[in-house]
Amino acid sequence: MRKASSDIAAMEGRRLGLDGIMTILSFILLFIIVVIPIFMIVYNAFFYQGKFDLTLFSSVIFDKENLKAMGNTIIIAVAVTIFGTIMGLFYAWLLGRSDIPAKGFMRALFTIPYMFPPFFGAMAWDLLFSGRAGYINRWLMSTFHLRTAPVNINSLGGIIFVECSYYFPFVFMQVVSALERMDPTLEESARIAGARQSQVIWKITLPLVKPAISAGALLILISSLAHFGVPSILGFSKNIYTLPTMIYALINKSGGSFDGIRQGTALSILLVAVVAIALVIQKKVLSSGSYDIIKGKSMRPTLIKLRGAKYPLLFLACLTLLIIVIVPLVMIFLVALVKAYGLPLVWKNFSFSNYQKVFASTATMDSIKNSLLLSITAGIVCMFLGVMIAYVVNRIKPKGKNVLEILSILPYSIPGTVLAIGVILSWSGAIFKITLYNTIWIILVAYMARYLSFSMKSASASLQQVNSSLEEASRACGATHTESLRDITLPLIKPAMVSGFFLIFLPAMRELTTSILLYGPYSRTLGVQIFALRDAGMIPQAAALASVAIVLIIICNAIVTWITKDRKGA
Amino acid sequence: MEKNQVVLRHVTKRFTTRTMGTVTAVDDFNLEIKEGECFSFLGPSGCGKTTTLRMIAGFEDLSEGEIELCGRPVSIKSKNLYIPPEERDLGMVFQAFAVWPHMNIFDNVAFPLKIRKTPKREIEARVKEALKHCSLDGLEKLYPSELSGGQQQRIALARAIVTNPKVMLLDEPLSNLDPKLRETMRFEIKELQRQFGFTIIFVTHDQSEAMAISDRMMVCDMGKIMQIDTPENLYRKPNSRFVHNFLGESTFINIVLKDGKVFPKGDNSQAIDIEIPAGAEQEMVIATRPNAIKLTKNSGFMTHIEKRIFLTDKTEYLVQVGEQLVKIQTPHRVVFAPGETCGIEITSPGWYPPEDKEAEAERARRQRF
Question: Which residues of B touch A192 (CB under 8 A)?
Fold first, then answer.
């Protein structure tokens, strides 16, 4: 590795040329996008009319309801983390180390929960198991002559189950890739040393993938703490709140008045505190140990023969996939076709009328247009911003580059709900009298803050692969700095830019958590519209719109896969 | 009388891959390795040496044949007998060391004993002994990541000898080390063998390493055994062009037989003065070593110096023979100038059939696989 001072980019950066401008621009933009909202939250939680004031903060924090919400948040997050980790670990081992058939197929299916927003799943499960109205509950009650609904999905247990089924891939993917990269001779040498297969798993394999397990588990913990969709869909009807849904409820109840927002702000501090504790644990655990387990010749790992257990385990895996992946998807499509919610799911009750209503409604069509506009704009803007910041951090290396790096990654650790409140506080006239509230632009600002880290990380990783001598060679050939950037560096990191775009476009398309707090009458997004339709009792229409979103997501994912495959071939 | 420690009979391994169809990676290997012997498997990548070792260790099943370790059958395909690796009582050292990063050095070396439920006192004594033999004493509490590559390989060695196995499998154990260290480790392995008396099977693609360490070695290529002999015999009497080429610097001259005389291919004006063996075909290749060709002022096959290269410990000359440039190495005191007329004398070269294009293509194909 070369030292910072010998980089030509770093030397250029000291003059006010292109590099200087990029450096300054990066700082200014991150200040506006990230620093201001965070500052506004802290300021408004502790200051009232310019004076330090803890009364609101303490009254909100010691409110019984809020304390209960915090308890729920922690119970749900811990349970989801435990069950999701066990599930992810088991299937990672099954697909990564055993001779179970149809691995590729199952692996593709196991990553599907990644693609869809968990609140779609919550909707589907709500349709099946909500009290006396859920389809399966009704069938069970009539078949077995039960007085009460046998399964109640609108409970902490229900929320935990649905979140688990969407978050276990975090551990699954981490551990599968660790198992695949692991040098198989580490396990083989234990066999030679006299250990049986089962001893090898407990004494060698598991300890070696422990860092991957804890990384995935903490990702589940942090995501679940900040999660809004599932508890809002399953919990509201039974007054079960978590911190993010409580913040939404407070602001919603007050009709967007400043008082409601202030209460939400105070509660946000609480949520941030809980997440911050989790983040500190994450940092501690991740820095404490990751081993170098990738070495040596790449040889296929010895697969464990399941023998008699092979087909029962295959059946179990298929059943899990059926329940967590197929059932919710099918349910959404079926309910989308049913004429009215509650009618039996039989052929004569099916029609396309919900789709007609969905496509005829301007509000719905607007929401699709809004989401496309927002996702594409956020994707493109963040793609360039990400490259610029990555270039400044990796090549120009100005003073305070660490600050720059932290600022660009920080917003992703902040719960979406909290970020939304910060953006509201900042852009409702508080700063230079700029009011973006109720417009689509406030959502764009929030998306940019939320997703900038994706493109920045992607561009950073790519820039680190492009040796700076390539740019130096171009300078030696007589190209100016700008020309070298344009003709050498940018084309080399183009693939990372493209994937950075999609890394933002896809989650932005299905975003709910921040948009639900930021939308105005004319700036509903796809997620908000589905949520609102369902809230208004138009469940089949909500399902129809959700199914449209599912198709859109599948198409976009197919395009991404196609593009990335194409690149590998080149 | 010396006992056979490792016996392979008709051992065959076929792989089926999507891209290549069925490949016979190991084709009918028959081997008898004696007690206390240091035996090397030598060959280019894809020759089947590692697969054979993995079959002996029990990591690969056989397609045909049987394997016996210390008089005990461990794999018999026809009887479906297969003893898992942990019950074969072997020591093994891998190319990438494979020391467990989550255990300290003591725990790494103690692992085989703990698995065997050895009493704690004995574990401590034996680990200490093994570490001493591998000059690792005092480092018990350190973790592998705190040690150098050479030290990590010593941990692997200590772990392998701690159970006092009869047979030690070494899978390219030195190729991840730098050249100086490689030589030291080679001596250390031999020294350990002298003290413990185990049989070594040593897999490598490095011919000088194999020659230095082995009592006998097997050279294989493309899944077939080419020759089994002592290093010296293999070097002096290779039975094929492949073995000749693999075991050291070689000079090959394409020749044509005409009227009972040997002419270099492409030039019928001057014959090379060598004896023609029985059964020689019209076109052949004669093989010798660059340092076995004598360079003279005015005897032998007359030609001129094309190029001179000064190397650290010898001088290398390229001379024109027929349509070929032939490489000759001499001590520095033999001095010829480029362009100068000279003669070359070749004594008792190897005679082989001309190059087989098909075999070359097959080798390339296997190396991709």
Answer: 57, 85-86, 88, 90-92, 160, 169
Give CATH 1.10.3720.10 domain extents, chain A. Answer: 15-49+353-570, 54-351
Cα B31 to its chain centre, rounded Å, is 15
- Crossing angle for the helix pair A118-129 and A156-181, to the nearest 10 degrees: 140
Q: Of A234, A219, A114, A129, which Cα lies nearest the Cα of A165?
A: A114
Average pLDDT per 10 consecutive residues for chain A, totaling 570 residues? 49 66 88 88 79 78 86 93 93 86 82 82 86 79 78 87 90 87 86 89 88 88 89 87 89 76 84 85 71 54 75 89 87 85 76 82 87 92 90 84 84 86 82 74 90 87 81 79 83 83 86 86 87 86 89 83 59
What is the rounded CA–CA span in Å between residue B33 and residue B123? 31
**Closest chain B residue by Cα to residue A199:** B115
Q: Cβ A296–B98 below 8 Å, yes or no? A: yes
- CATH, domain range A54-351: 1.10.3720.10
Count other Cβ atoms within 10 Å, centred on residue B101: 18
- DSSP result, B268-318: -SS-B--PPPTT--SEEEEEE-GGGSEEESSSSEEEEEEEEEE-SSSEEEE
Superfamily of domain A15-49+353-570: MetI-like (1.10.3720.10)
Token pair in block for residue A18: 């292109």
Q: Rounded CA gap, B351 and B257, in Å?
A: 12
C-beta atoms of A292 and B101 within 8 A: yes
Chain A, nearest residue to B170 by Cα: A189
Longest dimension (CA), chain B: 81
Whole-model pTM? 0.79
